[in-house]
Amino acid sequence: MFKMKTNLALVFFLLFSQIAYSQVIYTDVDPDVTIDNFLNGYGIDFDHNNKIDLHVSMLDNVGVWVMMLIPDSDADHTSVIYDGEEASILEEGDVIASSSNWYQLGQGWGGLLYGYWENDGEYGNWIGAQEDKYLGIQFEIDENFYYGWIYLSTEVFAYDQMQFTIQAFAYESQVGEPIIAGDMGNVGLEDNLSEKSCIYPNPTRKAIYLDRFSEIERIQVYNGLGVLLMEHNNDSKELDISVFEKGNYFLKIFTKDRVFVEKVIKQ
Fold it and tell me: How far is Cα 164 from Cα 148, in angstroms, rounded to an integer?
C-alpha cells in the first residue's frame, strides 16, 4: 500500500525562506513479505518509478550462504550505512544523513547482513534473530541523493537456513535531506513516539520548551546533515538554540523509558 504524507504545518514560514520541509514517502508492505529460500529476494522501489533501487537477497554457492543487499545494476549509486565492514543494524530514531558511514553496494561485502563461509565461519551483524530493525539507505534519482530506511526482521536458524521479512520502507523526498529511522511522515515516528509530548514554539528564534516529558536524562541536537551539535545531560525543560543558523534540526530526547525524536525549525 502506497502512502504520501506531507508536513504542511510550516507552509506560511516556508513561503518566505529557503528552508526545506519534510515530505516523507512511506510504503507499507502489506502483507509483510518473508523470503526464506536462497536465490530469492525482494526489490525495494523507494519512489515507485518502476526502477528497483536495491534488492534484499539470499544467495548461495558452493560452501557459501549469504543474506545481503545488492544493487539493481552496476550503474546504480546505492549505499547502505555500515560499520566499516558490514551493514549496520539501526534502531528507531537513528539519523540517516549524508554524514553517515556509507558503503556503495556492489563493490564487495559491505552490504552483507549475514553470511557463512564453510572454510571461515560466519560474518555480519544480523546474527540470530533481529526483530523490527532498520537499514539506512542512500540512493540516487537524476544524479541527486536521497535518504531512506527499510524496516525488516531477520532470523538465522542455521548456517544454511535463514529468512528475512520486509515490513515497510520510506524515504525523504527533499534532495539531500536526512530522515529518521521509522519516520513515516505526519502519522509516523513523531506522532507515535511523542503523542503525549509537546515542544514549543516551533519554529523558534531562541529557546524551545519541552512539556509533558518525564524524567529527561539526555537531549541531543543534530543538524540537517545528521551531525551531533549539542548534548545536554540534565532534566532541563528549556533548550537555547539561538546560536544555531536558520534551518532544520532534530532533537533526540532520552527519558528513563523511551527515546523521542522531534523536528525543530530554527528561524
Answer: 19
Query: How crowded is the C-beta side of 245, counted as CA atoms within 13 Å?
Result: 8
Least confident range from 62-76, 182-196, 234-248: namely 182-196
- Side-by-side strand order, sheet with 259-266: 228-232, 216-222, 247-255, 259-266
Over the stretch 88-137, which tens digit does the pLDDT of each residue have?
A: 999 988 999 999 999 999 989 999 999 999 999 999 999 999 999 999 99
Q: Give the model confidence (pLDDT) of 45-76 as tens digits.
A: 999 999 999 999 999 999 999 999 999 998 99
Nearest to 88 by CA among 148, 135, 150, 133: 135
Q: How far, rounded to the nearest angstrom, does the alpha carbon of residue 67 sit from its chain's CA centroid?
A: 20
pLDDT digits (tens, 9 = 90+) for 84-99: 999 999 998 899 999 9
Q: Domains of the chain (ranges plus CATH)? A: 24-181 (no CATH), 199-266 (2.60.40.3080)
Grid cell 526489490 in the structure block, residue: 43
- Structure-block grid coordinates of residue 209: 520548551
